[in-house]
Design brief:
Structural class: mainly alpha
Family: Belongs to the ABC-2 integral membrane protein family.
Main location: membrane
Strand content: under 5%
GO cellular component, one term: ATP-binding cassette (ABC) transporter complex
GO molecular function, one term: ABC-type transporter activity
Number of helices: 12
Pfam family, one: ABC2_membrane
Number of domains: 1
Length: 266
């Protein structure tokens, strides 16, 4: 029997690492984009935090400082909006023909998705740290200490993983920048304003409060807010982080499925 030669297959971690390196180099070449993305949280924290600071005195609000209340919401909003644009890299690769070369590589498709996602999460971590710093400089105070900061960053990372993966899947399915923008806006804006990011649940209309209870943005905000304040209920934190982890895993699986469907369609 004649042995059939097979192309060598790179290990999963090696392939994911190389993809991560490639996307990281792209990010460094366009590092101005990360800086520009921080303009929005600066506006939210420094401008809105000052304009609406009297909201903190409303009975039932639960916090005397609106800026301290607002920062965890702005943190989650920042990773949410950044995550919604994660799929643009795939569309650029498709339009430029790079994707055709990527698909010839004898590597796991999940490694290709994971490497790109890891880069997005690294960028998200930098943005999250900067938002917390901006919030502190703007007057917010985090009584939860290091543990609270860690909880907020974990929640932000899980939320970012969910929306980065979802954005990548939509990009691979639609292959259109306009479609990605439209779908992202249709999801991101309601997810933001139907959450506890900017307003205490007790002051929301009853139907908004009900929706926010099942909104993953609210889960992340609540974990971050209670952690930064040092008032976390560990049972609630574990439950909400568990839900966010499950949602991130499902979104990642969706992205892998979309990648394979894209390849089969060629």
């Amino acid at each position: 029997m004649i042995a059939t030669a097979q192309a060598p297959t790179a290990g999963w971690s090696v392939a994911a690492g190389q993809v991560f390196k490639r996307w990281s180099m792209n990010t460094l070449r366009e590092s101005w984009g990360v800086g520009v993305s921080l303009l929005q949280p600066i506006v939210w924290i420094l401008l809105f935090g000052q304009v609406f600071k009297s909201i903190g005195t409303i009975p039932g609000f639960g916090d005397g400082s609106y800026i301290t209340f607002l920062v965890p919401g702005v943190l989650m909003m920042t990773v949410l909006f950044s995550g919604a644009w994660a799929g643009t890299g795939y569309i650029e690769d498709i339009d430029s023909g790079v994707m055709n070369h990527v698909l010839t590589a004898p590597v796991s498709r999940s490694a290709l998705v994971a490497g790109q996602l890891a880069n997005q999460l690294a960028v998200s971590a930098v943005q999250s740290a900067m938002v917390l710093l901006i919030g502190f400089l703007g007057g917010a105070r985090f009584h939860g200490g290091v543990l609270g900061l860690v909880l907020a960053l974990i929640a932000a990372t899980l939320l970012a993983a969910t929306f980065c993966s979802f954005s990548s899947a939509i990009a691979l399915i639609t292959r259109s920048q306009l479609a990605l923008i439209g779908i992202s806006q249709m999801i991101v804006l309601p997810a933001t304003f139907l959450s506890s990011a900017m307003m205490a649940p007790d002051l929301m209309p009853s139907w908004v409060r009900t929706v926010s209870r099942y909104n993953p943005v609210s889960w992340a905000v609540d974990v971050g807010r209670s952690g930064l304040a040092g008032t976390q209920d560990w049972g609630s934190v574990a439950w909400q982080l568990g839900l966010l982890t499950a949602l991130a895993a499902a979104a990642f699986a969706f992205a892998i499925s979309a990648f394979r469907s894209f390849q089969r369609s060629l």
